[in-house]
Structures are given as structure tokens and as C-alpha cells.
Amino acid sequence: MQPQAIAKSQAAAPYKVGNFDKGALRSDVSHQWISRPADQRFLSLGELKDAMAEKRNTSHEYRVDTRKIEFIAPEPKRLEDTHALTVGLPDGTEIAPNHWSFGQLCNLAQAPSSYLRRLPSQIAADALSYGMRYSRDSDEIKAYASGDSLLAATGPDYGRIFDCEVVEAVMQIAGNGIGDMRWKVPGVLDWQTMLYNPEAPITIDSTTLYASDRDVFIFLVDDRNPIEVGKLPSGDPDLIFRGFYVTNSEVGSGSLRLAAFYLRGVCMNRNLWGVENFQELTMRHSKYAPARFIEESRPALASFANGSTKSLVDAVAAAKATKLASDQDEALAFLQARSVSRKRALSILEQGEREEQRPVRTAWDFAQALTANARSEPNTDTRIEIEMVAKKILDKVA
Predict the structure, then answer these.
(1) Residues near 342 by Cβ (< 8 Å), separated by ≥ 6?
(2) 43, 46, 57, 245: most buried by Cβ count inside 10 Å?
(3) Which residue segment(s) compose the domain that 78 sits in?
(4) What distance in Å separates the CA atoms of residue 242 and residue 225, rounded to the nearest whole number?
(5) Backbone phi, then psi, for 41, in 5-degree steps?
(6) In a domain, 42, yes or no
């Protein structure tokens, strides 16, 4: 499928944002931004794809009989020899595990990786050899190597979704991700003026395109096309725009995850502000994962990318128009009928009226009050339960 060129979007002027308390604060992207060194940051999807394609083109996958794997450590003559370990394959190839694949080998051999890492490699080799021969039910493992380095060691049914395929799928709807099509690396929120600038320059510091030898992470937004969903306290439009991130690990350090949502702003440290309608698709690297990625994830990504803004605006309007309670007693009964305790229900109604400056009566009011209460709840399970009540209310009127 060829990208549907929206033609290069015209530059958009900074616009005022706010009402961050109407949605969640998410730090998913900020965690990536904080932890990625310069050599894991990319300035375009094309540059990212080339790096991931080179990794795939120089890598090979082997199915290896468990009983024919050798763990080779040199005769210890120097201190360095006690840290050297290679994996011998049946064809005579020797490859050295990296930190990640060594842990996977230990897991396959049912041996504690943290303990073996502290032992001389000669002892670790014996322990791994024993574990592979006598502690595994499966007759094979799947090794993934590049040159003389072992990148991953998994069970035989591991379904590898290659990082470069994920990047290619994103490029079909985002081009280079730098503004040549609708989806792009986000701009920046100025906290002093509360103006969001979608045209902020893409630099090593601001990029949201990341990859390492273990994973790939992409975050893009459609911030040149904000949607008005209400008003700010000042009377200015309450603007929201679409965003998504996708992450994958072809070596097995994580599942493929695609998250799509609406948000009101992204600051320089890449926290997401005013996030609403967060939805996530997770796909484990099981036996049929590559086929499922083609059948499910790619269409889901394209569908979200080309989706109309009408559904969100209509959903907000429907929620605001749907009256669920005529007075405080009915509002309290409505929440209690959804397994919310009387004490918490009273707190929710009080908080909702305080923040919205009106009694909680409509589906929108209930959802906003529940979401606000959830943000102040320290227990994750309880917070999710409250947010699910809010989601079900909005789903029924959407």
C-alpha cells in the first residue's frame, strides 16, 4: 500500500492549550526520552528504517538441536579468560552472547542468570550445558545472530516480528515522520505562554524516534490538525490532537505494542498532557505473530491514521447531552449501582462539582468526575477500576 500523501502539511501557527486536568498525564514517552543515549536517537523514519534494515540484513536465524549446543570457555590463563564465553553451533560457528541473549540462554537452561554472571565462564559453561541437555522439554532453540554476536535465544515457536517491518508499516502512513505527511515528531509546549508549537525543530534532544540493538520505539502526532472539543476557562477553544506510539523488540525483550490516543500537549521532556481515550493493542511474539502483525496491527495503524475526527467530537457532544441524573440522590444511586461505595461516590460527586462548577448530571459530568477522582487515587488497581467505570459510561453514549 502506497502512502496517501497528504501533501506536505502547511506549517501551523502555535495555538493555546489547556484543560490538562480533563485528561491523564502519561510519562510513557518521557521514560524513553530520558533513557535513550544519542546513538539510539534518529531524526527521521527513513534514517531509522535504514538502521533497522541493516541489522536484519546482517543477521541470521538458526534452529539448533538443544543437545548439540556447546558452551565454550577458554582454558583460564588470564583473568580475562574467566569472562570469555561463546556458543558453539552444530556447523562449527562460534558466536558470543551479549548481555541480553546470555540472560535468555540462562532462562532456556533454567539457570539463574544473576548467579551465573558472577561465576567464572568455565563454570557457567558447564551449568548451561547441563541445563540445556537435562532441564529442557523442547528439542530445539531458535538462535538469532549477527556476525559473531548472538542477539537472541528463544524457544522454537517464537514468532519474530522484525523491527524494520514495524518501521516500514509506520512509514506507510507517516512518510519520514518529519512533517512531509500528516503524522510527525511532536512540537513543544511553552509553559510560560501555554502555547503549543507544532513546528518546533526536530533535534537529537527533541526527537521521539528511538532504537537500540534490543528494541524500536516511535511516537508521532497529528498536531497540525487540532480538534476543538470545548472551551478553556478563558473562553478560548479547548484543542486536542491525535497521537500514537508503537514499540517492538525483535529479540524478545518486549511485545509489539500499539497505543493510540488524544492529547492536549507535549512538553520538551516528552510528557503527554491531557491524554484521553487511550487504547492499546498488544501482540506477543507467538508462533503466528508475524502473520497477525500483517492482518491486525498494520490495518489498525492505518485505520487510526486515516480516521475521521467526527467520532470524537460526536462522542463528546453525546456525552454532554445525555442526562443520567436529575438530582444528587439519583447521581449517588447511579454510581452505587456501578459498585462504587457510598463514601467514594460522595467524594466523586463533590470533586466533580468543584472542578466543573456545576452538579454532576450528564454522562460527560460523570466521566470527568470519575477521571478526576482516579487521578488522586494512589492504588493502581483501584484507579483502573474507577477509570473503567468512566470508560463504560462514555462507551454507552458514543
Answers:
(1) 332, 336
(2) 245
(3) 59-146
(4) 9
(5) -110, 135
(6) yes
Sequence-distant (6+) residues with CB within 8 A of 259 are 28, 244, 245, 246, 278, 279, 280, 281
**Residue 390 lies inside a defined structural domain of this protein:** yes
What digits encode the pLDDT tens for the residues 44-62? 999 999 999 999 999 988 8
Regarding whether 65 and 49 lie in a shared domain, the answer is: no
> Residue 5 domain-assigned?
no
C-alpha of 73 from chain center: 39
Count up the domains in the chain and report the number: 3
Please give the C-alpha separations between residue 157 and each of 9, 99, 110, 138, 288, in angstroms, as whole numbers. Answer: 44, 22, 18, 10, 9
Residue with cell 505494542: 257
Q: Which residues of the chain, if any, have pLDDT below 70?
A: 1-10, 294-298, 302-313, 315, 398
Place of cell 509506520: 170
Q: Which of 287, 307, 327 is the last residue of a domain?
A: 307
* For the chain, the helix, strand and coil percentages under 3-state DSSP, each to the nearest 5: 40, 25, 35
Q: Sign of the CA dihedral 299, 300, 301, 306? A: positive
In 3D, which of 271, 277, 359 has the Cα closest to residue 313? 277
Contact 273, 20 (CB under 8 A): yes
Residue 77 has which C-alpha cell?
Answer: 590463563
- Cell matching residue 80: 580475562
Same-domain status, 204 and 299: yes
Does one domain contain both 224 and 204? Answer: yes
Q: Are residues 116 and 228 in the same domain?
A: no
> Are 292 and 327 found together in one domain?
no
In a domain, 200, yes or no: yes
pLDDT in tens, 74-90: 898 889 889 999 998 87
Give the predicted TM-score (pTM) of the model. Answer: 0.75
Is the CB of residue 260 less than 8 Å from the CB of residue 244? yes
Which residues are CB-contacts of 79 (< 8 A; sequence separation ≥ 6)?
none
User: Are 115 and 243 members of one domain?
Assistant: no
